[in-house]
Amino acid sequence: MIRFLVRVCISLTLFGALAAQAEDGYRMWLRYQPTADTQLRSQYQQQFTNIVQPGDSPTLQLAARELATGLRGITGQEIATPDTPTTGSVVFGTPESSAVIKSLELNDQLNALGDEGFVIARREYRGKPITAIAANSDVGVLYGSFHLLRLLQTQTPVDQLATQSAPAVEHRVVNHWDNLNRVVERGYAGLSLWDWGTLPAYKDNPRYKDYARINASLGINGTVINNVNADARILTDQFLEKAAALADVFRPYGIKLYLSVKFNSPMLLDGFETADPLDPKVQKWWQERVKKVYEYIPDFGGFLVKANSEGQPGPQDFNRNHADGANMLAEALEPFGGVVFWRAFVYAPEQGDRFREAYDEFMPLDGKFKDNVIVQIKNGPIDFQPREPFSPLFGSLEKTNIALELQVTQEYFGFSYHLAYQGPLFTEALNADTYAKGEGTTIGKILAGDVFDYKHTGMAAVINPGNSRNWTSHPFVQSSWYAFGRLAWDVNLTSSAIGEEWLRQTFSNDSDFIQPMQEIMAISREAGVNYRMPLGLTHLYAQGHHYGPAPWHDKSGRPDWTAYYYHQATEDGIGFDRTQSGSNAIEQYHDELTNKFTDPDTTPEDILLWFHHLGWNYQMNSGRSLWQELVHKYDTGVAQVEQMQKTWESVKDYVDAERYQRVKALLQVQLRDAKHWRDACISYFQSVNGLPLPKGSPEPAHDLEHYKRMEKELYVPDPWYPEPSGH
Amino acid sequence: MIRFLVRVCISLTLFGALAAQAEDGYRMWLRYQPTADTQLRSQYQQQFTNIVQPGDSPTLQLAARELATGLRGITGQEIATPDTPTTGSVVFGTPESSAVIKSLELNDQLNALGDEGFVIARREYRGKPITAIAANSDVGVLYGSFHLLRLLQTQTPVDQLATQSAPAVEHRVVNHWDNLNRVVERGYAGLSLWDWGTLPAYKDNPRYKDYARINASLGINGTVINNVNADARILTDQFLEKAAALADVFRPYGIKLYLSVKFNSPMLLDGFETADPLDPKVQKWWQERVKKVYEYIPDFGGFLVKANSEGQPGPQDFNRNHADGANMLAEALEPFGGVVFWRAFVYAPEQGDRFREAYDEFMPLDGKFKDNVIVQIKNGPIDFQPREPFSPLFGSLEKTNIALELQVTQEYFGFSYHLAYQGPLFTEALNADTYAKGEGTTIGKILAGDVFDYKHTGMAAVINPGNSRNWTSHPFVQSSWYAFGRLAWDVNLTSSAIGEEWLRQTFSNDSDFIQPMQEIMAISREAGVNYRMPLGLTHLYAQGHHYGPAPWHDKSGRPDWTAYYYHQATEDGIGFDRTQSGSNAIEQYHDELTNKFTDPDTTPEDILLWFHHLGWNYQMNSGRSLWQELVHKYDTGVAQVEQMQKTWESVKDYVDAERYQRVKALLQVQLRDAKHWRDACISYFQSVNGLPLPKGSPEPAHDLEHYKRMEKELYVPDPWYPEPSGH
Question: Is the pLDDT reported for residue B20 higher than 80?
Fold first, then answer.
C-alpha cells in the first residue's frame, strides 16, 4: 500500500512537472504529453517501460535521451535503463552496435533501407515482448527513435507500430537567410538563431541543440545557416570557427552544415581583381579556402550559391556561364565529398518574360555540370507566389542533379501574422506531373531519383526561424516546417495526413479537435490565394516587403518589379499571355502540358491567368464571367478566414489559453488584412474595367485612393526591410 | 495517514511543477522557488497559508494573483482564498477597500507614505496572527505585495518582516530605444518587445504582462516605449491605437505609458513648413495631437524629447531655445496632467569642450521651464562612459525639475557579452556630492526632492531589453535593471545590498553562493573600467558601435567623435585639461569641487585624466608613475575577469546547468575582449610615449597594426549598427 502510494506520488510529481511546462510553442511537435486516451496509455505503460542502449556513440546517446524523455512524457512513468532487455524494452541500435539487434535478424529489411532508413519491429527477446528500432547507421536509429515517438504521440495502436522507412530524397536541407548582423532577410520570427558574438564559446546554447532535435525529428540532414545574399566574411577564420562550433552541435543529429558563399569572395577578401572561374589563381584561391573550411569542419556539406541573380556577383560578370562557376566550386569541394547547390533563381531585366528565364538560361547547360553540383530550383518560375505552375526546369533538366526549393517562411503569405499551412502548396508541387516520361512523371518521383539518372537529389526549404520563443512567431508556421521535413522523407504523403500528424503532436489527439482543425489545414493556403491573387494572378504585392497589396504599381527600376507587368489588366481584359501568341513560355513544358495550356478552356482555372490574357467576360466553368469569378474568389478568401476564425473558436476547449489567445488575435489581424487585400484589388481592377460588382458582393470599404495611400502608410512589420524615409 | 499522504502527494505534484520550470532566466527575480532553508520554510508554511483579497479592482486582483503564485511557490503548499482572515492570512488592501485593513488602524503610518507607499505589519485579527499589507492606493498595495514576496524570497525571518516604505523619487521610468521596425538601438537582447504588427489585437501577449510585473515588482511607474531618435509615426492613429493596447496592459500595474516624440512632427505628418514652438499654428497642432493621444490613453504620462542633439530636430532649428520647445509641449499636456521629459544630452560640434555644453546651454534657462517639464540629464557630461564625473547640471539647476538618466543596456560595457553589474555605477552617481548646499548635497538627496523646491523629480534607465528568452540576453544585465528600480525607490540602498537581494532571488540564498558572488558584483563594473579606460580616460571606443577599442582614432566628421579628442595622448602626456589652464569645465561645479579638481594631487585618481593633462611620469599615490599605474590598471582589469571566472566556476554547484554554462561561456568571451582592450590600448599608448612596460607586465599579444586592423575586421554583434560595406 505504501509502495503503491509512493509510486503514485512519484507519478504525480512527474505529472506536475510535465503538466506545468508552458505551452508556449518552444517544444514544437516534440511535446511528449501523457497519452490522453487512458486505455491506450495503459497499454503504452506496459509496452514501453525501459530502453536498452547498445553503445556510446554520440548519436546513440542522443537517441537514448530522446527515447527516455519521450517515453517518460508519453507514459507518465519513469523509464529504466537496464543493460539487458526485459518485457517492455525498447531496444535500439545497428547490428554492429547491438548484439540484441543483430540477434533479431532484420537484415532482409535493413538491406533495402540504405544509410538512413530504419525498422521498427515488435519482437520477442528471450520470450519477452520488446520493441526494436534497427538501422544500418546510428543516425538511422535516431530517425527510427523519433518515428516511434511520433507514432506514440499520434496515439498509434501498439499492434500498428511495426514499420520500416527510408528517405525518398537524398539531401533534405533547410535554408536560413540570416545575415551576420542577425537580421533575417524575409524572417518574421525575431533575430537569427545564431548568436555569433557568443560563438564559439557558447555552443551549449540550448537553442542549437533543440534546433537540431527539431530537424532530426523530421529526418532533415542539412542546414545552410547564412543568407544566399551572402556576406563574404563567412569564409574567414573568424566565422569558420563559429560555424564549426555549430557544426559540432549538429553533427551527432545527422545534420551537415553548409554555407552560402559570395561568388566574388576572392576579390572581397583578398583583393583579387577578378573572380573568373576559369582563372587558375581564382581556382587556387577557392581550393585553398575550401581546404581551410574542411580543417574547421571535416564533414562540411558544401556551398549554396546565388549568382547573377538580383545583383549578386557570378560567373556571367566574367563572361562565363553557370556551369563554369558551379564547376569551379564543385572541383574544389570534390576531394572532400562536398556538393554545390547552385540556385536557378535568375531573371535579368532585359530578358522579356521572367517566367522563361531560368529555363532559357539553364537548359543549354544540361549535362555540363559536374556530378557534385545540384541545381536548386524554386517550385515555380517566378518567386514563391501563393500559387505558381511548376517550373519547367523540372522534368527538363535530365542530366543535371536538381533540388526543389520551397518556402516555409511566409514572405508572400502574410509574414508571421497569417495562418497559411503550406502542406497543400508543397504537395501540389510534388504531385505536379511534368510528363517528362509520359503521364505520372511527378516532381516527387523525379526527386526520389526514380526518373532520371541523377547522382544527387535534394529538397530545400527556406525556413527563416528566429529567436522568438516558439521559433516561428505564428504558431502555425511550424506546421509548414513539419510538412517540408515529412515530404522530403516521403514525397507521397498527403497534406492532410501530415497536417493531422502535426495537429496531434502539437495540440491534441482529440477527434473533436482534429476534425474541425483539418478544415483549417485544408483551406488556409487557398484562402491566402483567394484573398490575394486568385485565378492565376500573381505578384500584386507592394514592392519590396511583399506584405500588402499594390496591384496599381506600374513604375519601378525594372518592369518585372511592377504588379502591372504580371496582371496586365486593361479595359479589355487581364492576364499574361504565355501561349504562342504571347511569350510562349508554355513551350518550355512537355507537349501534353503545352497543349493543355494552349487553350484557356483546358487550362486549370486556378492558373488560368498565368497563361492567358482574357476578356473580363470570358466564361468560367461556374457560368460566371471572369470578372465575376475573380470577385467571387476574393469574397471566398475573406469568408474562408471568417470560417477559420469560427473553427478556431469552436476548439477553444482543446487548446491551452496562451496559444488559443495568440492564434485568435492573429486571425483578427488576418481578417483585417484579407479584407484589405480584397478591397484594394477589387477597387483597382474596377478602376480599370469599369464593371460593377456582382450582386451580393460588398463594396470596398474605401476608395482606391485610400488603398494607394495605405500602401505607403500602413505599418509593415519587417525588421529587415528598410524603413520608409521622411519620418 | 491517508490524508497526510494525500497532502504529501499534492505537495510533490506542486514541487514537481515548480522544480521543472526551466531556469532560462525568463522569470527574472520573480522565481518564487520553495524556501531552501527547511526550518524557515516550515515557519513560512505556518505564517502564510491564505490570502484575503478585499476588492475587485484590477490592481488588487493582480496583487492577489502575485501573492497566491508567490506564496505557493515559496511555501510549496496551496494557498487558500478565504473571505475572512484566519491564522496565516495575508490581508491586503487600503482602508477604503478593506474593512480588515481599516480595523488595524494603520493610519498614522499610512499618512506619511503618500500615494505609493505601503506598510507591512504583523498583527492579530480576532486573535489570529496575520500579515497585513496596507497602503493608501491599490498600487501601493501591489508594491507592498511584491515587497513581501521579496522579503520571503530573500529568506527574511518572520519577525523581521514588518516594515513601511515609500518611494524617494516621483517618476521612476524605464526607457526603450526601440524603433518601429523592432530593431532596438543599443539593444543587444533581440528585437523589440513590442510586436507592433499584432497590436492592438494581441495585447494578451504574455510578454507584456510579465514585463509589467517585472517593473512593478521594483516600483517602476512609467515606461517610454519608443526610441528617443523618434519616428513621427508614433503619433498617428495607427500607432496610438497600438500604444493604447500596451497602456491597457500596463495600467493596473501602476505603469504609465509615455512616448518619445520628434520635434518636427507637424512638418513630417502634416506638411507644415515650420515647427517653431512659438508659432500659434504649430502650438495648435500639438494641442490637437495631445488631445488625440489622451482620447486613446486617458492617463497618458507624457513625452520624452531628444531635441537638437545628434541631428534630431528641435527648437534651435527655428531660433528658439530648449525652454521654448519644452514649454510648448508642456502647455499642450498640462490640461491632461502630462509631463515632458526634455533631455539635456546636447553637444554641438563647434562648441569646444563637449563636457561643458549641456551646462552652458541649460543653465541660462534655469527657472524658465514650466512646472510640468522635467529636464532629463545623463549621470555624466559625456555619454554613459564606464566612469564619468557627475554632470555639473546636478546641484546647479535649482529652479528646474530634473531627472537622472542612467544606462542599463551595456552600450559601453560590452553589449550582452560582458558581466558588468551597474549597481556600483548607479550608487556612485547617487552618492556624488554636488556641494550645492554644502557638504552632503548628494544627487540622491536632490532627486528625493530634499534640496530644491522641485515640483517633479525623476529617475530614468535606458533598459533596451528584447525578445530574448531572458529579456536581457546576458543574465547579469538583469541585475542592473533590478538595481535601477530599487534605487529609484530608495536612493540610499547600497550596491552590495541590492546585489545580494538580486542574487538571492535570481539564483540562491545559500551563503556559500552569496559570499563569493558578492565579489563579482563588487568588481565587475570596475573591471570594465580597468580594462578599457582607467584613471579617468574616456571614449576610447571604436566609433559607432562602441564595442571594441580604437584609441588611435583621430579622424572623424567631428573632433568630439574621435578618441584622440578625449585622451589627447602625446609624447609628453595624456588627459584632458579641464582646469583654468584648459577648458575650465571644472568651474561648472560648486567651489569645493572646483578647488578639489584644480589640483591633480587632490583630484581622485579614478577621474584624474578627466580633468588634467599630465606627464607620463606624474607620480601617483601608489608611488608608480602615471604610465605604470595605467598599465597596472589595465592588467588589473584582465586579472579581475580571470578572478570572476574562477569565482563563477567555484559556485557551479549552486547554479542550474543552463545558466551556469551560459555565463561561463560569456566570461570566456569577456576575457578575450578584456585582453584585446588591454593589449590594443597599451600598444597604442606605447606607440605614443615610447615607454617600456613595467616589469612583470606582459607584452601585448600582437602589434599595433594588428589591433588597428581588428577594429575593421572583428565581428561586432549589433543588429542596429550598419554593417561594414564591401562584403
Answer: no
Instruction: List, in order, residues 6 or more apart from A655 with CB less than 8 Å away.
Output: A507, A508, A513, A663
Q: Which of B158, B139, B159 is nearest to B97 (CA)?
A: B139
Contact between A202 and A195 (Cβ < 8 Å): yes
> pTM for the complete prediction?
0.96
A303, A256 Cβ separation under 8 angstroms: no
Q: How far apart, in Å, do the first and last CA atoms of chain B sit?
A: 73
- Which of B9, B17, B236 is the closest to A20 by Cβ? B17
Question: Strand locations in A493-545, DSSP E?
Answer: none
**For this structure, is A383 an active site residue?**
yes
HSE, CB side, 13 Å, CA atoms: give it for residue B86: 8
> Cα–Cα–Cα angle for A242, A246, A252, nearest 5°?
150
Give which of A184, A188, A191, A711 to mutate to test B binding, by max B Cβ within 10 Å.
A191
User: Distances from the Cα of B76 to the Cαs of A149, A192, B153, B156, in angstroms?
Assistant: 33, 39, 13, 17
d(CA A607, CA A627): 15
Contacts of B31 by beta carbon, 8 Å cutoff, 6+ apart: B21, B23, B73, B153, B505, B506
Is the separation of the CB atoms in B388 and B379 below 8 Å?
A: yes
> Distance, in angstroms, between A264 CA and closest chain B CA?
9
The contacts of residue A726 (CB under 8 Å, 6+ apart) are: B268
Task: Give me the phi and psi of A268, to 5 degrees please.
Answer: -75, -40
DSSP structural state of residue A562: S
Q: Is residue A411 among the annotated active site residues?
A: yes
pLDDT for B350: 72
Q: Which cell goes with B461?
A: 534607465
List CB contacts of B153: < 8 A, sequence separation 6 or more. Answer: B29, B31, B32, B33, B70, B74, B504, B505
State the number of CA atoms in the 13 A half-sphere of A292 facing the CB.
Answer: 15
Instruction: Give the residue from B198, B239, B464 with the most A CB atoms within 10 Å of its CB, the best one to mutate.
Output: B198
ipTM of the complex: 0.94
3-state secondary structure of A328: helix
Q: Cα–Cα distance between A576 and A592 in angstroms, integer? A: 20
In this structure, the number of other CB atoms found within 10 A of the CB of residue A621 comes to 8
Q: Contact at 8 Å (CB) between B199 and B246?
A: yes
Yes or no: say if A342 and A325 are a contact pair by the CB < 8 Å rule.
yes
Of the candidates B9, B203, B714, the beta carbon closest to that of A12 is on B9
Q: Which residues of A touch B234 (CB under 8 A)?
A: none
Closest CA to A588 of A395, A308, A348: A395
Choose the closest CB to B201 out of A658, A669, A714.
A669
Query: How many other CB atoms are there within 10 angstroms of residue B68's CB atom?
Result: 18
CATH numbers and ranges of domains, chain A:
2-165 (3.30.379.10), 171-400+425-474+482-492 (3.20.20.80)
Indicate the SS3 state at residue B41. helix
Closest chain A residue to the Cα of B230, Cα to Cα: A727
Nearest CA in chain A to B313: A727
Per the CB < 8 A criterion, the answer to whether B417 and A197 are in contact is yes
- Chunked in runs of 10, what are the mean pLDDT values of chain A (727 residues)? 63 56 91 96 97 90 97 97 94 94 93 97 93 97 98 97 97 98 97 97 97 98 98 97 98 98 98 98 98 98 96 97 98 98 88 91 97 98 98 98 98 98 98 98 97 97 98 98 98 98 98 98 98 97 93 88 94 98 97 98 98 98 98 98 98 96 98 98 98 96 97 90 78
Q: In this predicted structure, what is the pLDDT of residue B5?
A: 63
| Maximum Cα interatomic distance, chain A, rounded to a whole number of Å | 86
